[in-house]
């Protein structure tokens, strides 16, 4: 190799090293950035107690949480109560976000960071708006993809942008915002374990009936009291599945009964009686592709001052006036006919 070639290679190497050094030193350093410690919403900590409304928009759907009296409620679900601590966590998370680094300002790159239009169907971004009691906006932010691998932080960060602006930012801090009502609503409706059920009577729209009672010597511990002779169960657990409907029964969403038109003639009616005298009456509907359920309860025991009497009163007070939107599998548990859960006994069976 000639001295001239060696000199040329040395010059190229020096230039490459210099370029690499420049590239590294020109990047935004999380520790020395001018944004270090700068709150995204500097005054939100002081204004947190003034937040009276939280609006969340994603996938073209809006959820509006309003502070009514001492409770937070979801407006789109008939002002049904939600877990207020979840709203507080959102406000707290936003108030503690710190700017780390300016990212892209090109709208064409927003979808990569999940910062596109939150009003667009099938979008991944979320628009979060905090308002005071007068309806004035306190803070608003488009929230995008999380980044859990940030140096010198245990919380991770997120990509965000301010509505109406193209500039995207990486911030320190995470905010967890449920995208469905069931992630916010107080989902518990009624909870009576099957071991406490002594009888279930189900009447279906066509008049067919299912009667479920405990039975010790069968798998599942329950049987259909009115199963015709010559038939056997397709699944030995079918009667228990009906008796267990009230076990940790939770909702997906909810509407006021007065806001929807339920056809009583199409209702599946179920009456559940517990060993301690709690009687729960369900009516379940399948309308317009949605499963609705209404609930009523009363105490039919002899101890009017008892835990069971109190439980019945609480169920009635909690469910009065509401139609719950329930998962399809829960609807199917009570909507089965005798012919669906039984089959003919054959010589080989």
List keywords for this structure.
about 350 residues; 9-stranded antiparallel β-sheet; 8-stranded antiparallel β-sheet; elongated
Question: Can you walk through the features of this model?
Answer:
With 349 residues, this protein is of the alpha+beta class. It has 2 domains: 44-183; 188-344, no CATH class. Helix content is 20%, strand content 33%. The chain has 7 helices and 21 strands. The protein has helices spanning 3-26, 44-47, 84-95, 238-243, 307-319, 328-334, 338-341; strands spanning 53-58, 61-68, 71-74, 80-81, 98-102, 126-131, 137-147, 157-161, 168-172, 188-190, 197-203, 209-214, 222-224, 231-233, 249-250, 253-256, 268-274, 278-287, 290-299, 322-325, 342-344. It has a 9-stranded antiparallel β-sheet with strand order 4-3-2-1-6-7-8-9-5, with helices on one face. It has an 8-stranded antiparallel β-sheet with strand order 13-12-11-17-18-19-20-16. The chain has a two-stranded antiparallel ribbon with strand order 10-15. A hairpin with a 7-residue loop joins strand 12 (209-214) and strand 13 (222-224). The N and C termini lie far apart (91 Å).
């Amino acid at each position: 190799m000639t001295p001239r070639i060696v000199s040329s290679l040395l010059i190229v190497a020096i230039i490459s090293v210099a370029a690499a050094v420049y590239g590294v030193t020109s990047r935004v350093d999380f520790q020395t950035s001018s944004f270090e410690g700068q709150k995204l919403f500097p005054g939100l900590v002081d204004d947190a107690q003034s937040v009276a409304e939280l609006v969340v928009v994603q996938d073209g759907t809006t959820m509006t949480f309003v502070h009514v009296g001492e409770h937070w409620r979801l407006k789109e679900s008939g002002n049904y109560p939600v877990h207020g601590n979840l709203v507080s966590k959102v406000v707290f998370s936003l108030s503690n976000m710190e700017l780390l680094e300016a990212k892209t300002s090109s709208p064409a790159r927003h979808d990569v960071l999940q910062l596109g239009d939150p009003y667009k169907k099938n979008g991944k971004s979320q628009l979060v708006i905090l308002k005071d009691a007068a309806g004035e906006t306190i803070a608003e932010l488009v929230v995008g993809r999380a980044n859990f691998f940030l140096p010198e932080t245990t919380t991770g960060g997120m990509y965000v942008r301010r509505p109406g602006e193209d500039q995207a930012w990486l911030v320190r801090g995470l905010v967890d915002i449920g995208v469905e009502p069931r992630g916010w609503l107080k989902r518990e409706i009624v909870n009576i374990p099957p071991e406490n059920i002594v009888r279930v009577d189900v009447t279906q729209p066509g008049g067919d009936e299912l009667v479920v009672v405990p039975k010790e010597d069968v798998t599942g511990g329950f049987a259909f009291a009115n199963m015709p002779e010559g038939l056997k169960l397709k699944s030995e657990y079918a009667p228990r599945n009906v008796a267990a409907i009230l076990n940790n029964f939770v909702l997906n969403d909810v509407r006021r009964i007065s806001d929807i038109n339920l056809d009583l003639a199409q209702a599946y009616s179920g009456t559940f009686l517990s060993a301690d005298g709690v009687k729960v009456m369900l009516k379940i509907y399948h309308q317009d592709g949605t499963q609705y359920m209404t609930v009523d309860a009363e105490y039919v025991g002899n101890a009017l001052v008892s835990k069971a009497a109190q439980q019945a009163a609480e169920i009635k007070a909690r469910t009065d006036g509401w139609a719950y939107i329930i998962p399809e599998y829960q609807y199917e548990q009570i909507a089965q006919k005798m012919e669906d859960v039984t089959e003919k006994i054959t010589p080989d069976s």
